[in-house]
Specification:
86 residues; mainly beta; three-stranded antiparallel β-sheet; two-stranded antiparallel ribbon; 9% helix; binds zinc ion
Length: 86
Amino acid sequence: MFSLVSPTYCDFCGTKLNVNSNCTRSIITSYGTITCNITYWICPNCKKHFHDNIVGVSGSANYSDEFYNKCLSDTMVDAVFTIPAD
Ligand SMILES: [Zn+2]
């Protein structure tokens, strides 16, 4: 349902990134909760960290944009979202 966009080169110095680690993220959507395998990347030159971006999910949110917008437009839902700090 969602596609991943992997960073390839460092935004800061242009060095090709190395895989640092992998993890699984749960994303809440209006279709249910799905899990995505996310790759974390590290620049071998300046040690900056990057991660895969999920198309349709903002930043490190644990819900999809369409789910968030659906809740915002639904006045019956008093939803509380928390965005985990990186
Ligand atoms: Zn770099």
